[in-house]
Amino acid sequence: MAKLTVQDVGEFDVPDGKRLVNALTDEAGTDQLHACGGHSRCTTCRVEFVEGEPEQMTAAEKETLEARGITEPGVRLSCQINCDHDMTVRVISRLEGSGRKDQGGQPADKIEPEPQWVSR
Questions:
Q1: How far is CA 23 from CA 11, 35, 110, 117, in A?
Q2: What one-character DSSP code corresponds to residue 78?
Q3: Which domains does the chain have, with CATH numbers?
Q4: What share of the chain has pLDDT > 70, as a percent?
Q5: Nearest CA to 4 among 21, 108, 42?
Q6: How many whole angstroms separate alpha carbon 20 and alpha carbon 77?
Q7: Residue 56 · residue 119 · CB < 8 Å
Q8: What is the pLDDT of residue 1?
Q9: Which residues of the chain have pLDDT under 50?
């Protein structure tokens, strides 16, 4: 099991390979947004890595971040990351205060679209 630490929330054991976006809602109980349902089409599932940022990212994540002009170090899309090691994150996009009616559709268990791994 991987250990997920969410700043200002706590530490949680997460099954290896679980999508970070799902771990943030299921294990950590946060109100993390995921408006597109975890398909790397929006950026509402952004998190900031404090420790344990993965070395690789999906091509879809890279394209989405670049298209939206998101260049801050450590800012990643939680829908495109598997929990396969210990990590510490700060939730950036939350339902509270967003004006949205809900967090978004439930993301699938596996990363979508099919991941093609690239260097960040």
A1: 11, 16, 12, 21
A2: G
A3: 2-96 (3.10.20.30)
A4: 100
A5: 21
A6: 9
A7: yes
A8: 94
A9: none
